[in-house]
Amino acid sequence: MIPEIEKASIEAIKAFQEEKLKELLHYLNKNSSYYQGVFQERGIDINTVQTIEDLAQIPVTTKDQLQQYNDDFICVPKNKIIDYVTTSGTLGEPVTFALTDNDLERLAYNEAISFACAGVGQNDVMQLMTTMDRRFMAGLAYFLGARKLGSGIIRVGSGIPELQWDSIKKFKPTYLICVPSFLLKLIEFAQQHNIDLSQSGVEGAICIGEPIKNQDFSLNILASKIKSSWDIELYSTYASTEMSTAFNECEHHNGGHHHPELIIVEILDDNDNAAIQGEIGELVITTLGVEAMPLLRFKTGDMVKAHNEACKCGRNTLRLGPVEGRKKQMIKYKGTTLYPPAMYNVLNHFSEVDAFVIEIYHNELGTDEILIKIAAKNVSETLLTEIKDHIRAKLRVLPRIEFCDKKDLNALRFPAMSRKPIELIDRRE
Ligand SMILES: [Zn+2]
C-alpha cells in the first residue's frame, strides 16, 4: 500500500505539492484570521507564491505565535470541531489543537500509510502502549490508523508491564506501538517472570517519542540495548500534534518517509533560510489537507537532516533522519515534549515552595531525565503528593522530585558571577 505519489519522480512530487500549496494559501486567505493578518501586514499577494521556493516570501510561524494567537488559527466554526487536543506550549499554558471530522479522517489515512510503511498489514495485530485520552493526539491517531488499515489493535495504554504481557500472551500481537525505553521495562519484567522473549510472537515495534537511531541510521544505545535482549524489528516514527503527520521508517530503516500529500517539508538554517542540502537544520512544515488548524511554515524546533536519494522500498519521497536536537531547551520526557517554563509555572503555583532548580540530563540511554530539586517550608508527604498531583495534571508526566535544604539549593541557584538566580541546569550533551 504505497500511495502512487510517493513512487513518482522528485519533480512530479514537487509539482504535486505546489498545486496543494496554492489550494492551501487560498483556503487560509479565506478562513484563517491569523494568516489573513500575516498576508495583509506583510503585503503578501498569495498569487505570487507558486513554488516551494516562493514560500520564502512568507514569514515562518513560531510556537509562541501559535500559543499567543491560538484561536485565530482555527479556520472552522465551533460546531465543526469534533476532537480537542492540547500540547504543552512554550509559554506555559497548553496550546489547543482542534480537529474536524475530515481532519480525523486525514489523521487515520496518515497513520494507515505510515503503519503500512513499517510493514503492518491486515493480518497484523498491534498492541497500543500509549494513552488514548488526556487530550493527546497520538493514541487516537494510532487507533484510527489501524482501523483504516484493517489491522487489529489492542488498547492497553501506557505502563503496567504485567498487563502488557498478559495482553501479549492472550491476543498475540505482532507489533507493539510504544516509547522504546518502555521495551526495556517489558524485557526486565519478562526476565524476572520467566517469559521466553523469543516465543512472544512479537515481530516488530513502532517506536514513538524517542530516537532509536544515530545520524548514520545505526542503532543508538537504547535500540542496541533492546535488540540485544529481544531481537524484534524496531521502526522509528517521528510525529507531532502540530504536524498531524508521521514520518515512518520502511523496512530498510533509513529514515522516516515523507508523505507529500500531507505535508510540505523545509529544513532551515539559523537565519530561517533553506539549509544546505544534507545539513542538519530546523524542520519547518506546512500542513496539507488540514481543515481546522492548518499551519503555514511552522517552526517545529526540531533539528533534523533530510535524505533525498531514492529508497529501495520504491518510494522516492525524502526521508528525515533522527531528531538531532531541540532548538533551545526542549525536553523529551516519556514521549512528551516539555519546556522548562511549563514546569516553572507549575512549581510557582505552590506558596510553600521557596525555591527550585530543574536539572536536565541524559541518562545512560541518551534520553532526557528531569530532576526537580525543591526547597520548601514545612516539608511533608502531603505536600509532595500535592505537588506531584499538580504536575501530573498540568504536564501529564511526572519528573523526579527531591526536597533539598535551602542553603544547598541556593548554592546551585547562585553560582559565582551570576546575577540572577538560575532555575534550569541543562547538563545534556
Ligand atoms: Zn523506504
Query: How many helices in DSSP terms?
Result: 12
Largest sheet: 6 strands, mixed
Sheet with most strands: strand arrangement: 4-3-5-6-7-8
Our estimate of the beta-strand percent is 15-25%
What are the key terms here?
single chain, 429 residues, six-stranded mixed sheet, 21 strands, globular, binds zinc ion
Commentary on this structure:
The protein is an alpha/beta fold and 429 residues long. It has twelve helices and 21 strands. It has helices at residues 4-7, 10-31, 33-42, 63-68, 101-117, 138-149, 161-171, 180-192, 221-229, 340-348, 381-395, 406-413, and strands spanning 81-88, 94-100, 125-128, 152-155, 175-178, 204-207, 233-240, 245-248, 256-257, 263-268, 281-287, 298-304, 306-307, 319-320, 325-326, 331-333, 336-338, 353-362, 368-376, 400-403, 424-426. A hairpin with a 2-residue loop joins strand 16 and strand 17. The two termini are 40 Å apart. The protein binds zinc ion.
Topology, element by element:
Elements: H1 4-7, H2 10-31, H3 33-42, H4 63-68, E1 81-88, E2 94-100, H5 101-117, E3 125-128, H6 138-149, E4 152-155, H7 161-171, E5 175-178, H8 180-192, E6 204-207, H9 221-229, E7 233-240, E8 245-248, E9 256-257, E10 263-268, E11 281-287, E12 298-304, E13 306-307, E14 319-320, E15 325-326, E16 331-333, E17 336-338, H10 340-348, E18 353-362, E19 368-376, H11 381-395, E20 400-403, H12 406-413, E21 424-426
Parallel strand pairs: 3-4, 3-5, 5-6, 6-7, 18-21, 19-20
Antiparallel strand pairs: 1-2, 7-8, 9-14, 10-11, 11-12, 12-15, 13-14, 16-17, 18-19
Helix pairs in contact: 2-3, 5-6, 7-8, 8-9, 10-11
The structure holds zinc ion.
Zinc ion binds next to loops.
